[in-house]
Amino acid sequence: MTTVLKLGGSVITEKDGTEAVDVANLGVAVEALAGREDIVVVHGGGSFGHHHAAEHGVTTTDGTHNDEAIRAIHGAMKRLNAAVVEGLSGEGTPALPVHPLSVASRDADGDLHAPTTHVETMLSEGFVPILHGDVIAHAEKGATILSGDELVVTLASALDADRVGVCSAVPGVYDESGEVIAQIDSFEAVADALGESDETDVTGGMAGKVRQLLELDAEAYVFGIDGLESFLDGRHPGTRIG
């Protein structure tokens, strides 16, 4: 059973700092993942990549040809990735870093091209691939951001994942009264609560996560750090999507 897990940047980094790891939350994640098999981990940028991307005005649609800006964003994400990999390996998890800049790209229409054979091979050899949101080459735009959420959906589809988990800073998707929604079967059913219409082009935030997860055939869940171990044990924390 293949699992794709997203560790949100807001979970494993401290939002008030610059390139500051949330040591406590990362420790919880590291312990929960120890001994797990057939799992791919993707992490977000938090106070690492987002800071540099904002400074240079790079988004999922606005690109740059400034090589120094690209290296700054990618370098920050590599540093966070190294912290995650080192934490996991310290608990005996055979974690390996995978950097999207080296393999992924977008064409002029913005379509993502991200080969996954190397990730499949790592899994088959017993390793735990650790990927991250990144900056990637984008035809006619230089380079743009590949979000961790988009990467999760791409990997889940390519690997025919059985379960997908998004570990977020909140315990699930909230309804309009602030209660966690147990199940979401369509975007229309929660559009008002998420503050987005079905026609809105969303590239981030909870609305974007819900939209993308609804595209999957796999079981998908959004939950907080307290629900991570439960998810990994096969239970159903937070909000089930799809």
Question: What would you note in describing this structure?
Answer:
Strands 3-6-2-1-9-11-12-10 form an 8-stranded mixed sheet, with helices on both faces. Strands 5-4-7-8 form a 4-stranded mixed sheet. Helix content is 36%, strand content 19%. With 242 residues, it is an alpha/beta fold. A hairpin with a 3-residue loop joins strand 7 (134-138) and strand 8.
Short descriptors:
242 residues, alpha/beta, 8-stranded mixed beta sheet, 4-stranded mixed beta sheet, 9 helices, globular
How far apart lie the N and C ends?
Answer: 18 Å
Helix content: 25-40%
Radius of gyration from CA coordinates: 17 Å
- Secondary-structure element order, as H and E? EHHEHHEEEHEEEHEEHHEHE
The biggest beta sheet is recorded as:
8 strands, mixed
The residue ranges in which pLDDT falls below 50 over 5 or more consecutive positions are 197-203
Mean pLDDT: 94
The assigned structural class equals alpha/beta
Any idea what the shape is?
globular
So how many helices?
9
Strand order, main sheet: write it out: 3-6-2-1-9-11-12-10
Count of extended strands: 12
**Estimated share of beta-strand residues:** 15-25%
